[in-house]
Amino acid sequence: MVRIITNSSIVPGTDCERVLYISKDGNQMQSDQILRVLIVDDSIVYRKIVSDLLAELPNVKVVGVASNGKIALSKIEHLKPDLLTLDIEMPEIDGLEVLAQIRSRGLDVGAIMLSSLTQKGGEMTLKALELGAFDFIAKPQSGTMQENREAIKKRLVPMLSAFASRKAIKHSSHTVNATETKSHIVQKRSDSEVVVIGISTGGPNSLAVMMPGLPGDLGVPVLIVQHMPPKFTKALADKLNAKCALEVREAVDGELVQPNVALIAPGGRQMKVEASIGGTRKVVRVTDDPPENNCKPSVDYLFKSIAHVYKGRSTGVIMTGMGSDGTRGLELMKRTGATIIAQDAASCVVYGMPKGPTEAGIVDVVAPLDKIAYEIAKTVRNR
Predict the structure, then answer these.
(1) What pLDDT band is residue 6 in, cutting at 50, 70 and 90?
(2) Catalytic residue among 41, 94, 135, 325
(3) Can 325 be counted among the known catalytic residues?
(4) Residues with Cβ < 8 Å from 78, sequence gap 6 or more?
(5) CA distances from 126 to 3, 134, 188, 208 (A)
(6) Which of 8, 71, 91, 138 fits 229 for a cystine, CB–CB 3.0-4.6 Å?
(7) Are 236 and 206 contacting, i.e. CB atoms less than 8 angstroms apart?
(8) pLDDT tens digits for range 340-358
(9) Cα–Cα nearest to 288, from 264, 307, 272, 306
(10) How far is Cα 379 from Cα 361, in angstroms, rounded to an integer?
(11) 230 burial class (0-12, 13-18, 19+ CB within 10 angstroms)?
């Protein structure tokens, strides 16, 4: 039977998703209320790109634009937007200060960041997420205005839908009994020899909470896929390494999988594990293979290799994020006898990635964010 650890009786369910519908271009948006958006960017080009694509979306209303943070803060007070699309680097007051002011003033408004693809941009984006930003989009660095518009739209539309879903949950009194999830018989398993984690929206902050709870002598490697573009994962690894007892770094092709070391898949690449000749050692492979589930790095790509190389001697962890990346990989891991841990709905920023495996009955433990590290350690050895 699935074991459910809970800190709360509030478990967001599927009611909010029933108000989703698919528009002509296949994009999903909320249909129960208008999402009011304020566009904040010092670039007139990006203000136009975002304004034009939002104007095409049903149930989204652009309530204003601002060319810097100072103007944005004054407009938030009287326009009452639900959400900002917020540039990070701006004159007078930048995006980070806007977020800090939103927090200090207790303003009820979310933010999706637009960030440059630089090491500095990655560090600032992680800081923005720490300050409460919902998610981020990397600004395209080349291409025509139309190509950049489509690239942003592909990322922004599902974010808007996920933000609207979370907003509906926060204002809803809907509760479900946690035991409504499907359950299954859990067979006795061997101690895990590897821990693999898949995570997306809300991931950097969630990892910063969970990873420091893992002991430095965990005794097994930890492999992580966090959906991020290039250059951002290095900043994430460095930040986690400073917080954790485990060593945390961005993975390099060809390095050995080692105990007590956590490797994060490089943004924009795929990561898998292969057995060395003779099978005595495991090697990380970082590849340019195509995206899976429109994701690169992809959770499924890693998890499927783990199912093949480690058989049942593994622990799969699926955490907050949009979409379903990871479900198929977890199914394969489960067939070989792996232990599966899922983050609970109440502690997810977006209850997307853990939802499918949990409802399919392949999850052994459903746990809140602050209990996941403890549950992982239990699968490795008795603690």
Answers:
(1) low
(2) 325
(3) yes
(4) none
(5) 33, 11, 40, 11
(6) 138
(7) no
(8) 999 999 999 999 999 999 9
(9) 272
(10) 19
(11) middle
**Rounded Cα distance, 272 and 253, in Å:** 10
171 catalytic, yes or no?
Answer: no
Shortest CA distance to 26 belongs to which of 154, 119, 136, 172?
A: 154
3-state secondary structure at position 284:
strand
Check 115, 200, 206, 314 and give the catalytic one: 200
Which residue out of 206, 227, 347, 364 is catalytically annotated? 227
In the chain, % of residues over pLDDT 90: 70
pLDDT tens digits, residue range 30-58? 445 789 999 999 999 999 999 999 999 98
Three-state DSSP at 205 gives: helix
Question: For the chain, what is the radius of gyration of the CA atoms?
Answer: 21
Outline where 36-85 has alpha helix (H).
44-55, 69-79
Contacts of 93 (CB under 8 A, 6+ apart): 68, 69, 70, 72, 73, 101
206 noted as active-site residue:
no
Taking the C-alpha atoms of residue 149 and residue 137, their distance in angstroms, rounded to an integer, is 12
- Predicted TM-score of the model (pTM): 0.85
Give Cα 21 distance to the centre of its chain: 23
CA distance 89 to 96: 8
Name residue 222's beta-bridge partners: 195, 262
Cα–Cα distance between 76 and 83 in angstroms, integer? Answer: 10
**Domains annotated on the chain, with CATH:** 15-170 (3.40.50.2300), 181-380 (3.40.50.180)
Q: For 1-40, what is the HEC assignment?
A: CCEECCCCCCCCCCHHHHHEEECCCCCEEECCCCEEEEEE
